[in-house]
Amino acid sequence: MEPIREIRSKTLVLPNDDIDTDQIIPARFLTTTTRQGLGKNLFNDWRYDKDGRERPEFVLNKPENRGSKVLVAGNNFGCGSSREHAPWALLDFGIRAVVSTEIADIFRANSLKNGLLPVIVDKETHRWLLGNPGADVVVDLETTTLLANGRRVPFPIDRFSRYCLMNGIDQLGFLLEQNEAIARYEREHA
Amino acid sequence: MPSLFEKIWGSHVVVPETDDTPAVLYIDLHLLHEVTTPQAFDVLRARGLRVRRPERCLATLDHSTPTVPVKTLKELEIVSEPSAAKQVRQMEQNCKDFGIELHGYGSRDRGIVHVMGPELGATHPGATIVCGDSHTSTHGAFGALAFGIGTTEVGHVLATQCLLQRRPKTLAINVTGQLPADVTAKDLILKIIGTIGVGGGTGYVLEYRGEAIRALSMEQRMTVCNMSIEAGARAGLVAPDDTTYEYMAGRPLAPQGAAWDAALKRWRALPSDSDAEFDKEVEIDVSKMRPMVTFGTNPGMVIPIDAAVPSDGDPAFRKALAYMQVEAGKPMLGKPVDVVFIGSCTNGRLSDIREAARVLRGRRVADRVRLLVVPGSAAVKRQAEAEGLDEVVRAAGGEWREPGCSMCIGMNGDTVPSGKLAVSTSNRNFEGRQGAGARTVLASPVTAAAAAIKGAIADPRELVS
Q: Which of B117, B139, B148, B419 lies at a C-alpha separation of 20 to 30 Å from B405?
């Protein structure tokens, strides 16, 4: 994984609360055996009409939003299914950070393991972000702050996940190094 | 004074957590299916790793598999989408290459992974259980800490039998009063989700407690724990008791003989101590409950069957109502229904099919309604057929299928057409969950069966005596 320090981008805003992983990537696209290529079906049923044409009014399809790396979403983003295809689809599309007041547990865990930053902010900051689509923001992993509207607001992130992300370390390597402790546990619980 | 959760967590910590690193948590049982595992096996291959404990894996085919009869892989190619068939083939190959037993085609055990595991006796109180599927919470009904994980974590467990985890908080759901007759476990969990909200359990492990929970059968407890994730909680627990042990005794993967006696002694020490503390507690009185139905596009948007759809000025709420084509202030009762689905890891067990059959017996499904009944496993199918329940479904004009996830997730060709309204015993009424543009109303098996007979959302209490 590429080390991550900061993400600078204009925001893309999807204000809906409770956006579930079935919206992020509908189940019929999960019959894949790879991680790649899911970006074209990101938010598929909101993004395209019945004939597969882009709906011009949908935020992801607006020309000014192409290339945005930071998605600001309504409360409780990523609820529902455990499908890791959801962060894979967001990353494949080019999203590097998701900002909300609350991010569902499994989606957050999956995101952190793939280099997609879950950024949880207070209600006031969130309200400003929702009201100012296209705002320039900086997600700074070094200081764990989001710079928006001239203010730096801190966001919580597990220290271990932050360390792995900043150094491009994957967590499986760390777990494999625990082999001795795991073997001991297995002997004691055999 | 530890709680059930704390006892299970404490006994599975391999390396304790610190500020800098999460805990290394040992996993007793890893459930695998074809949709969320291929990329994990690829990582193992790429890094030259083996599966650390293949005997602690339980694998099956359920999500992308057809529910029309398929006996061989060759037949699968004919009825399935090529990508779905490829996924199944790859699962067979992965299990073969890594020495994992697969309960695949031709197996007498094959079924939805969360139906099959408990049926085989693989789900043990006090165990840690994971699966690349959010409804892994089902197994919490046995007092096991069971939760869904992503594919990267599936790889972690395959390679190390462990996960890196931060300890979650605990939330006690104290359910008081007795459930009225013909109000089911499904109604109960919908009510709980409606009360705490779809994000109310985020960051928590739930423990369902109280007399109403004690009175539930194991299959009903599984229905409750199954939908913990719909409240945002990765896991839900019910303390084991005699109901648990009676269900488990004699099942092939349950401990036998002296090992059973030793296990019982351990399991009886698992329930939360009387002075256990929880990070949060919620009280829910169920004595006046009525059957529940959802009206919106998440499981927390739920009302008693005879209530009116609430109103709310929030744009997302209005969008959900517009998608569902329902109006605030009007009841769900009487709304015409196109499809009825009875099945899934929530309500695809024998007792669920029996419940539905109580309503269907001697009646006919309304003309314009398609009724699909999908047993949760091959064992459920066999038992139901032995009781003649398949005939009850067919005589009513319904379709009786092979086991699988089917129309709950719509990955196998079983979908609800765009714009059509389905009453479904599954767990998610998200936009398009059962097919692009499909509208879903979640309900219990009796309520779903009543809708099939009436051709509209109906109060099941009018049809059962």
A: B419
pLDDT band at A159, cuts 50/70/90?
very high
Give the number of other CB atoms < 10 A from CB of residue A143. Answer: 12
CA distances from residue B362 to A67, B265, B392, B395 in whole angstroms, order as listed: 60, 47, 7, 8
Q: Mean pLDDT, 10 residues at a time, over chain B (465 residues)?
A: 97 97 98 98 98 98 90 74 92 98 94 98 98 98 98 98 98 97 96 97 98 98 98 98 98 98 98 97 98 98 98 90 97 98 98 98 97 98 98 98 96 95 98 97 98 98 87
Q: Which residues of B touch A105 (CB under 8 A)?
A: 168, 202-203, 232, 234
Nearest chain A alpha carbon to B166 = A158
Exposure class string for B25-57: b at 16+ Cβ within 10 A, else e: bbbbbbbbbbbbbbbbbbbbeeeebebbbeebb
Say how far apart CA B419 and CA B436 lie, in whole Å.
8
- What is the 8-class DSSP label of residue B52? S
B87/A82 touch (CB, cutoff 8 Å), yes or no: no
Nearest Cα residue to B131 out of B39, B4, B31, B205: B31
Which of these, B443, B464, B353, lies nearest to B398 by C-alpha position?
Answer: B353
**Nearest-CA neighbor of B403 among B387, B392, B390, B418?**
B390
Neighbours of A153 (CB within 10 A): 17
Residues of chain A with pLDDT > 70, as a percent, come to: 100
Please list every residue in chain B whose beta carbon sits closer than 8 Å to the beta carbon of residue A106.
134, 148-150, 229, 234
Residue B143 zone, left/alpha/beta (φ > 0; ψ -120 to 50; rest): left
Distance of alpha carbon B405 from alpha carbon B272, whole angstroms: 33
Kindly provide the ipTM of the predicted complex, given to two decimals.
0.97
Closest CA to A57 of A46, A68, A66: A46
Query: What is the three-state SS of A36-101?
Result: CCCHHHCCHHHHECCCCCECCCCHHHCHHHCCCCEEEECCCECECCCCCHHHHHHHHHCCCEEEEC
Angle subtended by helix axes A159-167 and A105-112, to nearest 10: 30
Distance of alpha carbon B402 from alpha carbon B67, whole angstroms: 4
Q: Which helix (H) or strand (E) holds A183?
A: helix A179-188
- Interior angle at CA B412, CA B410 and CA B415, nearest 5: 35
Task: Check residue B465 and give its pLDDT.
Answer: 66
Residue B69: predicted pLDDT: 82
Question: Where are the strands (E) in B61-189, listed by range?
Answer: 102-103, 128-131, 145-148, 162-165, 169-176
CA angle B130, B134, B137 (to 5 degrees): 65
Distance (Å) of CA B192 to CA B218, B285, B291: 18, 10, 13
What are the residues facing B298 on neighbouring strands? Answer: none
> For residue B300, how many other CB atoms are within 10 A of its CB?
23
Q: How high is the pLDDT of residue A1?
A: 81
Whether A160 and B315 lie within 8 Å, measured CB to CB: no
